[in-house]
Specification:
The protein is an alpha+beta fold. Helix content is about 65%, strand content about 15%. The protein has a 3-stranded antiparallel beta sheet. A hairpin with a 2-residue loop joins strand 2 and strand 3.
């Protein structure tokens, strides 16, 4: 499971790569997409990019375009299925919440009935 920052970066990479399966992005461009809510250094971004490679989301090559560092990114199989994975993750959270909510309602009803029965027995 990806962290919040990794998810934001992967969202951006996925939107840029989804049509062709690959893209050229600069670190500044990726960092700018996170602003104003998240601020990262280039070292932190580099580490996150390495983690995404290790997790099998992207294939990363570093290049030089007009004298600045450029990431040559392509989506791996897991990266191509990223949108579906996010959708399934959200559905699992909703199902989990729904089950917990139903269990809480059931517990409240049982507690209420037990209270009514005990109060009738005490009379």
């Amino acid at each position: 499971m990806l962290s919040k920052t990794e998810r934001k970066i992967m969202d951006y990479i996925y939107t840029k790569c989804k049509s062709k399966g690959a893209a050229l992005l600069t670190p500044k461009e990726i960092l700018a997409s996170l602003l104003p809510k998240t601020e990262l250094t280039t070292k932190e971004l580099d580490q996150i990019m390495k983690n995404l490679v290790i997790d099998g989301y992207i294939d990363l090559e570093k290049g030089d375009k007009n004298g600045s560092l450029t990431y040559i990114l392509s989506l791996k199989t897991r990266g191509q299925a990223y949108q579906r994975e996010r959708k399934n993750e959200k559905q699992q959270i909703l199902k989990s919440f729904g089950f917990k909510f139903a269990l809480a309602i059931f517990g409240a009803i049982v507690a209420f009935l037990a209270g009514v029965i005990l109060s009738n027995l005490a009379k």
